[in-house]
Amino acid sequence: MRRSRARNAAAVTLAAALTAVTAGCGGGSTTDGEGSNDNPKELTYWASNQGTSIAHDKKVLTPELKRFEKQTGIKVKLEVIPWDSLLDRILAATSSGQGPDVLNIGNTWSASLQATGALLAWDEQHMKKVGGAERFQPSALAAAGAPQKDPAALPIYSLAYGLYYNKKMFKDAGIDEPPATWDELVKDGKKLTGDGKYGIAVEGGDPVENSHHAFILGKQHGHDFFDPSGKPTFDSDGAVKAVKQYVDLLAAEKIAPPGNAEYAKRESVRDFATGKAAMLLWQAAATSLKSNGMKSDEYGVAPVPVQAKGSGEKGTRSMVAGINLAVFKNTDNIDGSLKFAKFMTSDEEQRTLNAAYGSIPPVKAARSDKAFDTPDLKVLREVLSSSSAPLPQVPDESKFETLVGNATKELFADAAAGRKVTTASVKKELSAAQQQMRK
Amino acid sequence: MTTLSPPPGSEAAAPSAGAADDGPSRPRRRRILPDRLRRAGLPYLLLLPALVLELLIHLAPMAVGVVMSFKELTQQYIRNWGEAPWTGADNFRIAVDVNAPVGEALLHSFLVTCAFTVLAVSLAWLLGVTAAILMQESFRGRGVLRALFLTPYALPVYTAVITWSFLLQRDGGMVNHVIHDQLGLTDSEPFWLIGDNSFVALVVVAVWRTWPFAFLILMAALQNIPKELYEAAQVDGAGIRQQIRRITLPSLRPVNQVLVLVLFLWTFNDFNVPYILFGKSAPEAADLISIHIYQASFVTWDFGSGSAMSVLLLLFLLLVTGGYLLATGAGRKRDV
Fold it and tell me: What is the top-level taxon of the source organism (chain A) (predicted)?
């Protein structure tokens, strides 16, 4: 009898051990303050994956980091982190306090990460050390933290959405110029669809891509996904119109292939590069297209279409896309981190790095370089300075990307399975997304 | 080991043998603890390292998770979660309110997980037991086949599941190539990674991944059944079916009890397979609870809510596991 009780006790302990994996993770605590200089000869840098692969990034960044080491004597330990795990890694680093000294963040996350209080604020004193705020493009700096607050990061790569189109396919279909409005895009798309080829490729299974298009189209319908007080308005009429219009490229207009509903690994870029689709909405795609075998003279870039020509904020053609450089507040090499930020935002490095990645320098002085005079970058530069808007800089922004992006993904899946996507079904999905933002 | 715990009946003999070896002049070594106490304490002493590790690795984080579930823990507080405001049972109330979206989505996810677990565990067990019985007979190539069967278990989970995700792609995936292009079983190419079919895809990959474990365990258990039982049964005129029903399955019962429990817990909590197959946002039809809680915590940055869901899940699993252990334990006693 005693044996069986002991066995039961052991079994329950075992059960507890086996089930314990579901328990929450521990929480960390970090000290406040502005970091220290305890480790002045070394920096750890988490770079986001900007190039065609992690190896490509290492190849681009390593010589530059060597140059920094030569100038300052500070060795930089580089880690390139893929996008799909970057935010998790940053959150883990934030909660544990065991992060890098300097890191890249997607500029749309700036306000969300700023709210954690883990990033160094770029107040006037810190800004002075990198040459002052006026060195940066104002729109890029606006996407570096909440309004009325010191930026939580510095912009280092700027990107904008453009409409990439296949010149030969357009010519063969008798289309002279890229579409300027969505109606024209649908009309052209129908001409270009047939024989196993489609008018446009979309990355329908990728929540982040979906949320960006929802935002741009939302702006064009006069809608923002947050009200001025920062509360979500995901299921208002403008949002429903925007998401439905985007999903309808596949659902109603059928100018995007059904298979695109599950694309989430840049397959749409591959399909455009290989001539399976004639158009693509993407941010600075030159490097990716090249790596997929498409030559630069085979495609053109035009601004993303609008609802009707010339209509103020409704003429928004892109979000201010880009990458920012942030410093963890608890760094043990604060001086070195500031030096590194100065180095990465210097005119010379901005030219080198942005040219290597096919992005646009957010540092004004570096923009005049010939490397950024290519026809596609000229268009994207113009879009950035005249018709782009930063994603809402509110703490809940990252939730918007996930929840609205997911809702759109589900709607794409419905459309691909042959189910009807109606205004009511879009509203239902977006309402459910909004309800998840209960706080 | 033997000096600490001599086998029953050897206590009297051991000291006298020692005394004979060392010579009569050597004084007998005094034991610090009386035998009874040592015998009673030994199991606990041996359990101690495991208990300490258990406390550090599982119970302490569990306790932290429980505390977090009563807090409003958003990104504002993740640097110092101790400062997050208490919300009482709010997180739990919201999680179980099935008339509101959060609770409704959690219930949906829970039901999907239950269906997935029942299907995946049953199929994995059935495959495992069938293969194990078939592999008992000696035949040419048996070793190769056994090794082949164990491959899914031996492969790193990421490599295996990412390969599945390529195979299951609608356009260009091998699965559709075979069932649609070659065999013509479907009118159009189905989706496997989005929409309703994603549930089927998830079950298939999970079964593929777990059945070799069942096979391995059951194969080892089968080796322990005395051959004489089968020989006697044959002499009595029992056929193969009767032998399996009357000898094999009853003999496997103790092993099956543990095996099914382990498979149940692994499958119910499986995070790797759905995460690698579908990414951070699983399709509704395959929204397993592990991914759902991950989303609540790490994607929408509401760690308090995610912790509350974890605690609820933990209670459910403890309840099911405890009930199962008591039921099967009682069964064992009856057997004796």
Answer: Bacteria
Distances (CA, A) of B89 to A27, A396, B41, B271: 19, 23, 41, 27
Note the pLDDT of residue B185. 93
Residues 114-153, chain B: which have Cβ within 8 Å of A? none
As a whole number, mean pLDDT of residues B271-275 equals 95
Residue A42 has pLDDT above 90, yes or no: yes
Give the count of beta carbons closer than 10 Å to the beta carbon of residue A149. 16
For B216-269, how does the pLDDT look when each residue is reduced to its tens digit (9 = 90+)?
A: 999 999 988 998 999 999 899 888 889 888 999 999 999 999 999 999 999 999
Q: Give the H/E segment covering residue A157.
A: strand A154-159
Interchain CB contact of A91 with B (< 8 Å): yes
pLDDT value of position A86: 92
Question: What type of residue is A293?
Answer: G
Read off the amino acid at residue A431. S
Please name the residue that has the structure tokens 């189109």.
Answer: A165
Contact between residue A42 and residue A333 where contact means Cβ atoms under 8 Å apart:
yes
B contacts of A431 (beta carbons < 8 Å): 101
Two structure tokens written together for A414:
């419905």
Q: Contact A16/B94, CB-based, under 8 Å?
A: no
**A296-322: b or e for each residue (b if 16 or more CB lie within 10 Å)?**
eeebbbbbbbbbeeeeeeebbbbbbbb
| A396 contact partners, CB below 8 Å, separation of at least 6 | A112, A226, A230, A232, A437
Whole-number Å distance between alpha carbons of B179 and A170: 36
Distances (CA, A) of B218 to B53, B119, B222, B223, B249: 30, 19, 6, 9, 10
- pLDDT given for residue A311 in this prediction: 60
Distance CA A329, CA A97 (A): 9
Percentage of chain B with pLDDT > 70? 88
d(CA A272, CA B170): 18
Alpha-carbon distance A263 to A248, whole Å? 16
**Minimum-distance CB partner of B310 among A24, A112, A435:** A24
Residue B5 CA from chain centroid, whole number: 34
Q: When comparing pLDDT for B102 and B124, which is higher?
A: B124
pTM, whole model, 2 decimals? 0.83
| pLDDT value of residue B97 | 93
Which residue from A89, A85, A105, A88 is spatially nearest to A154, judged by alpha carbons?
Answer: A105
**Cβ neighbours of B33 (radius 10 Å):** 11
- Taking the C-alpha atoms of residue B277 and residue B286, their distance in angstroms, rounded to an integer, is 10
Residue ranges of alpha helices (H) inside A312-422 are 334-344, 347-357, 375-386, 397-416
Distances (CA, A) of B194 to A261, A425, A436: 8, 17, 21
- Chain B residues 154-193 with a CB less than 8 Å from chain A: 169-171, 189, 191, 193
> Which one-letter amino acid corresponds to residue A323?
I
The alpha helices in chain B, defined as continuous H runs, are: 13-22, 35-54, 60-68, 90-96, 101-134, 142-154, 157-167, 174-176, 197-223, 227-235, 240-243, 249-268, 272-278, 289-294, 303-335
